[in-house]
Queue: 4 jobs
Job 1
Amino acid sequence: MELVDEIAAMRQGRGNPGALVGEFRRTPLLVPLVDGGLLTAVFGGVRWIHAFTDEAALARFAQARNVPPDQEWEYVSLLGARLTDAVIPSMDGPGGVAVNAADEDASMLFPPVKGIVPDAVAVDVDHADQGEGAR
């Protein structure tokens, strides 16, 4: 199944969390660039990277943010695994990925928890024994 199908299955209560995370990790996602960095937003103490499964989902997000239709957005394509395993650990504070944020019935959050991000940056792991680099 594709990521959008796994998200739909989860939202309908018939999904498999392991399959969802696996498909997320394998999927190339479009991440807009703003001021030389990835488009993020902070909510609930977490910095969320905005990522999209295709250009149509990105366009719906831009429209929801009242971006003029003729304005182009530069973006990069990154695997979900690259976002969680490399980008998020390099961020200051907890980070997660918000996929297709403008699609009410097709969006999904991948929070900074064990099984999604590396344990060293997961907010639900006791870092007391992990030394100086732990968050």
Note: The longest strand covers residues 28-34.
Job 2
Amino acid sequence: MNYLTKAILTSAAILTATSVMADSAKSLDHAEKATKNRQAVFTLLGSNMGPLGAMAKGRIALDAKVVEKNATRINQLSLMIADYTKTDTSGFNVKSDALAKIWQEPKAFTKRINALSKASAHLQMTAKTADESAIKKAIAGVGKTCGGCHDDYKAD
């Protein structure tokens, strides 16, 4: 079994183990804290995805080491999404772009998380090849998983 396969299987196992039924926030304070933590994970995901998108589009030079580092971070953060989206905050008036579908469709949302984990693990391995075309294709794969999730679970 190669490294990529092991990484994907490990990521999927961890996500499955941490994907539990949503807990409803117990108070507005609880909902606000859960929302803040959830948004922090997604902010970090975006800060690591931004340079990758710029490289894929040719706006900045492709740097395989930066791609590998950011892909590793994205993969690690993807493993946290289930934990930080577990608290259903949809019943509270908190400032958030998260749609209630996150908690209404937990299996579908978990599939999206797994897709990000798999795509980011693939990008980590592809970055090691220094094959610019393959790296750009793998970046696009990660971007597609992000965009698909945004389309279904994030308000415009």
Note: The mean pLDDT is 90.
Job 3
Amino acid sequence: MAIDKQKTLKRMKSLTELHGAPGFENDVRDYMIEQMEPFVDDFVYNRLGGFYGVKRSKTKNAKRVMVAAHMDEVGFMLTNITENGMLQFTNLGGVATDIWQCQRLQVKTRKGDNYVGVVSNIPKHFQTQGDRPPKIEDLMLDIGNSSAEEVRERGIEIGDSIVPYTPFTQLSEHRYTSKAWDNRYGCLIGIELLEMLQDVELDVDLYVGANVQEEVGLRGARPSAELIGPDVAFVVDCSPANDMQGKQKLSGQIGAGTLIRVKDGTMILKPNFRDYLLQLADEHQITHQYYISPGGTDGGEIHKANTGVPTAVIGMCARYIHSTESVFDIRDYEAARTLLYQSVTHLDDDQIHHLQYD
């Protein structure tokens, strides 16, 4: 089943503009459940906040296939309110320290209100030769208040979460920018996979959902894997592109297709799983590229669960992730979505056994 591009773009905007720092993923989870509910039989949940929609097979004792995204984006947690109404914070996830000055961030209160502010910066006029880029804990968010009392009157308190304030924007015919494409990409592709499969009978029980707290150490993946007990898993995650000066070996190029991630800092793709993906990509003329990353994904935890789970990452890359913006090419998303669909629909008991043991 084809999905209307305007529906995809609407979902992209909704997902990327949601507030979802590590440990604060509720808004993303609520949106995903609402979007997925028409296409699944039921939902299962773990105790950290991860969830999966289940599309059950009519096959008796069907194998279990897991499609795992993560809901969280890099962000911050409020740690101090100064006497003159500035907000200090600590990072949640891996962020560079030199990119946040004069950027807009938004803080979310316990009541669900969002307030936008600007990160402080020393004007050039007042800088000295010895000034260095500040550490995260030295930055302050200016939300327009002049006292701690004014801040607290707005419902803002220590422990609240903060994320970039970045509207979803089209840059050119195929390219877009947003915050949090890592990994609202995976959240989106999971929703749309289920929609594409709504009239398809599978030989497997399909579990599609998302984990929490990936950006702070893959913390939500193992509870999900142990909840589901998958026979095979696909991780859908966004990876950094390093192509601003042209193609740089296997470091990701936007517009060059979905990623065949053969190695990263947490997992090596099994050769027979690699060949399965490549065969499908060739048969269905899906644009793809090899990819190697020093980082990792939730696959690093999922593939080690129980007695071992054959796991592959079906991803795409974007520029400037883990910052206020990420630039990506929608054609890469469409290639990844097609490869995921073909990968799931071609699984049966024999193919799963081959991926597990051959």
Note: The chain is about 25% helix and 25% strand.
Job 4
Amino acid sequence: MRLILIAMDKKTEEFYIRLKEELKNTSEWPSNYLYKFIVPTDAKKIEEVENAFDNMGAVIQTQQSKNAKYTSVSINVTMESPESVVSKYIEVSGIEGIISL
């Protein structure tokens, strides 16, 4: 995990460290977690996000914006630990144009 964080800018690394600490202090694990992403409306990009949660029992909902330029992807899934939550954010961050909310 630490090796992945080293490649990030300092602000992003600090965000993930803070998120992990907050999750440790506010939830019991394993726990349900709701991920929310915005991606350009492109079937391939949406599929990449969905595939990152494949075989995890995730409930995935998508909604296009009014002008259909973007799609929101909400994913409710049981995660094992705060580290696994952060790891999944890092995994999907490589998808071009994705915004994590």
Note: Residues 2-100 form a domain with the Alpha-Beta Plaits fold (CATH 3.30.70.260).
